[in-house]
Amino acid sequence: xxxxxxxxxxxxxxxxxxxxxxxxxxxxxxxxxxxxxxxxxxxxxxxxxxxxxxxxxxxxxxxxxxxxxxxxxxxxxxxxxxxxxxxxxxxxxxxxxxxxxxxxxxxxxxxxxxxxxxxxxxxxxxxxxxxxxxxxxxxxxxxxxx
Length: 146
What we know:
Elements: H1 2-24, H2 86-99, E1 106-112, E2 118-123, E3 129-135, E4 142-144
Antiparallel strand pairs: 1-2, 2-3, 3-4
C-alpha cells in the first residue's frame, strides 16, 4: 500500500513538472502595452471613433500581434465609397451620442454643403450648439469645424 501511494505521488509530481515545462514554452511573452521609444500614439479622428490608422502611422494599439486589424464587427465588409446621405449622417451621429451614453444632446442642422461634405451640429436640449462637424460622404472621415 505504501509503495503504491509513493509511486502515485511520484507519477503525479513528474506529470506536473512535464506539464509545466510544456506550458512554459507554449506561448511567447506578450508585447509591452506601450511604445518604448517615446513617440506619441498616432492621432485619431473624432474622439477616436471609426477611424483606421492612416498610412505612414504604425497604428500602435490597433493591430494584433499577428498583424490583423482589431474590429468589433468583423463580419461586416467596409465599402471603399460609403455613399452617405444626410439621413445616414444623422443616424451615425445620433448613434455615437447614444453609444457614449449621452441621451440629452441632439444632432441638428444636418445638410450637405456645396463643396461636398455633410455638415451637422451637436446641440443641447435648449438649442445651443456644442460643436459643429462635417463628414465626408465617401470616406466617412469626420472633422470638427466649430
